Amino acid sequence: MKRLFPLLILCVFALGALSGCASKSDIVKLPRPSGKIAVAGFTNPVFNWELLAGYLPHEGKPIKKDILQELDAKMVGVLSKHGVTAFARPAITRQCQEIEVFENLGGRREAAFAYWVKVGQCMSADYILVPQILFWQDLRGMQKADFNIQPASVIIDLYLIDVNNRRIIRRFHYDETQQPLTENMLEAGTFFKRGGKWVTAMQLADEALETGLMELGL
């Protein structure tokens, strides 16, 4: 029995690795939207009514501004890598984000959606990509140690809004907290893909943007 245990572990690792590869190849690439696209700067809703969907794990916890700026730059980099070039960058779209304001339109969530449509209209865009970060917890502790660790955890939503028809046409939701391999053998493929070590919240955000933009057709 003792001799079989290592073999069993290797089988689990192999299955995890295969499942990781399958998840990457199964990503659905939707047709790229035709028209002018405005990319909003990352926002960090601190209250549920600021969201377009879902709920915050913790209200009232803002994220540092420099993190949002770094995410904006990463968004532009991934879009460019994917061959998306004709879009208004977050630095420009932020001007309209600062001009437009939330209005009392009845339900607060309806007001949040109306706000982003107005930002898209301000940009004269056919579509607006709205990235929101709902939770951010960075890694604390040694990256290669399995004790005294606060793992990185990230929740990001990406919305593609049809401005002219006033509707959300695509959404990508990313909710990831890294776990030790000993706690989740089925994630062995992802564990080894990350170099077999603990990763930072920004590295999780890289995964979210790479996968999310592909799923949105961008």
From TrEMBL:
Q: Output the superkingdom of the source species.
A: Bacteria
| Keyword tags | Lipoprotein, Signal
Q: Which range is the signal sequence, renumbered to this chain?
A: 1-22
PROSITE patterns per record = PROKAR_LIPOPROTEIN
Q: What is this protein called?
A: Putative lipoprotein
Q: Which organism is it from?
A: Maridesulfovibrio salexigens (strain ATCC 14822 / DSM 2638 / NCIMB 8403 / VKM B-1763) (Desulfovibrio salexigens)
